[in-house]
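User: Show me an example of a complex going from sequences to C-alpha cells.

Assistant: Sure. Here are the input components:
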Amino acid sequence: MKAFRYLNGLVCPLDRANVDTDAIIPKQFLKSIKRSGFGPFLFDEWRYADHGEPDMDCTQRPLRQDFVLNLPRYKGAQVLLARDNFGCGSSREHAPWAIEDYGFQVVIAPSFADIFFGNCYKNGILPIVLPGATVDKLFAECVATEGYRLSVDLESQTVVAPSGSPSLSTFRCIASTAC
Amino acid sequence: MAGKTLYDKLWESHVVREESDGTCLLYIDRHLMHEVTSPQAFEGLRLAGRRAWRSSSIVANPDHNTPTDDWDKGIKDPISRLQVETLDANIKEFGALVYFPFKHANQGIIHVIGPENGTTLPGMTVVCGDSHTSTHGAFGALAHGIGTSEVEHVLATQTLVTKRAKSMLVKVDGQLGNSITAKDVALAVIGRIGTAGGTGYAIEFGGAAIRGLSIEGRMTLCNMAIEAGARAGLVAPDEKTVEYLKGRQFAPKGTDWEKAVAYWATLKSDPDARFDAVVELDAGVIEPQVTWGTSPEQVLSVHGHVPNPANEPDLQKRGGIELALKYMGLAADTPISEIRVDKVFIGSCANSRIEDLRAAAKVVEGRKKAVSVKLVLVVPGSGVVKRQAEAEGLDRVFVEAGFEWREPGCSMCLAMNADRLEPGERCASTSNRNFEGRQGSGGRTHLVSPQMAAAAAIAGHFVDVRTAF
C-alpha cells in the first residue's frame, strides 16, 4: 500500500458499465492464500488471449491488443476512469488487491458497488465518485488527449483536469472543459 | 416522530459507538467463514499476535473449492487443496463454534448450513467474507458481505466499522402465479430497479406475496438482494420463521426460546416507519424470468425476445447491450424460448435447498434430459439437504432422467472446483450471477428458477414450465 497526499497520474479509460469483480480478478486466482501478486492477472479474461491460471508467467502470454490496458499510451497508468456500478458482484478483496498491485491508486466512476468501495479504503486505493456528466467529459478528454493526466489532491479533496485550477471542495472535479 | 424500520431496530441494537460523521462500530453476533476470503485475515491476526475475540461466534466450512464427485480421491487441484487445508489449520488454531471440514456429513454451502443448524437467528448481525451473506436477512437478521480486511477486523474485535445504509421497501402484493418462485420475484425486482438500484440501501421485502413465501423462498430472495446492489436484504420474522427454527440445534431452548420468540415478534417495521425509497410490484403479473445478458438486470419473461440495441436511444446502454449479445452469442430479437442450452446447473446458495430440489424433481419426474443437453448437475446445498433429498427419492428421479446427483458445495455457481462451462457453452443455471466467465472462462449463463432449469434440461431450450409439459 502506497500512501499519497497528491497524485498526478496517467489516466486509463475503461468504458463499460457494471464492471464486476469476476472481471476484475477471475475466480481461479482466488485460490491464493496471499494478498500480493494479483496485478498481472487484473482483468485477466479481457487482457489476455489465452486462459490464465495462477503462477503463470504473464510476460509470455498473448495479449488482446484492443483491450485498453494493453494500449501503449496507457502503460503506467495510475488513475482508472470507469463507468457506473464499478466493482459490483462479490466481496472478494482480491479485486482491490489486483488493482493496487497493478499500479492504480485512484479509481474514478459515477458510482461504485458498496462492498468494493469499502474494500478500496482498506487497501490504499482512493475511489472517487464524480457526477455522470463530469465522467463523460473526462472520458472524452482522455480519449482525445494522449498522455492525459489528472491530479488528485487528498487534502483539498479535489480532482484537477489539465485545464483546471484547484479549489477546496469535496472531490469536485476542477477544469474549465470537464466540469 | 416516525416509527422505526426493521433495519433501524437491528442497527440500533448493535451500535457500540457512533462518531460525529456517522461512522459506527457495529457489534457482530455471527461470523460465517469459508476458505477463500479468510486465509489472509487469519494471517493478519497471527502477524499481529492477536487471538479471535469470540471464537464461539464462528461457523465455518470449506465450500468454494470442494469437489462434488469422487470425494474418496480428495481435492485434486493442489492450490485448492492448500486453501482448504489452510482453513482446517486456522480453525484448529483460532477456534469455532461449528466447523465442518471437507467430507463431513453436514458440510455444505456456508449460507445453507447456518440457517439449517439454527446458528442464524432473527435479530442477529451476521457477517461473512462473501457477498451472498445477504441470504440470512430472510430471518430478520442484519447480514452483510464483507471484505477480507473486515473479516480480520471482526475476528480481532467482534465489530465492524461501517455507516448506516438508507432504507428501501420493496413491496410485492398480490399472489404469485403457479410455478412462479422467489427467484422470479428477485429477478423481476432486479429487472425493475437495476443492479445498482439498491446501492447504499438495505432492502426490506414486504407485502402479501413475500409473507406468502416459505423461509427457503425468502432466503432465495434475500440472497439476490446483493445482485440489486443492496447492502442487505431483510424479511421480518413471523410465525413461519419461528416454526422453521424450532428445535434446530443452535436455536434457543426452554425459557430462552419463549423469550426469543417474544423478542422476534418486535422485529418488524412500525406501521408509521418511513423508508427512503419504496418500490411496488404486483406479484400476479410476474412470469418465469430468464436472464439473457451478462448482468442480472438483463432479464426478461420467458415469453420475451432478446433486445435489439438499435432500439436503445442511450448510447451507453446500447453499447452494454451490444457487448452482452456478443459475449452471449445471441442475435437481437431472438425469442428467449428458442435459446438452446448445453448444460444445466441446479444448485448454489440461491437455490440448493430441499424445496428447490423438490420443485425441480416434480418437473423432471418420469421425463428424460434432452439428448442435446450434455450435462445436468444437481448439487445439494449441504449434507443435510442431500440426505433429506435421498430419503424422499429425489436423487433417483434426477438420475433416472439422466441428471448427475453430486456432493454438496458451491460447484458451478463460480467454478472454483472442477465443475465448469467450457468456452462458448450455454447454461441454464439456478445460481445468482451471469457475469462473463462466472461459470467458466467463455461460458454463457442464463439465470432461472429451479423449475425453469429443470424444464430447460428436459426440453433442451427455455420453455414456460407452466405450460410446456
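The lines above are the inputs; the final block is the predicted structure for all two components together. Chain B touches chain A through 45 residues (CB under 8 Å).
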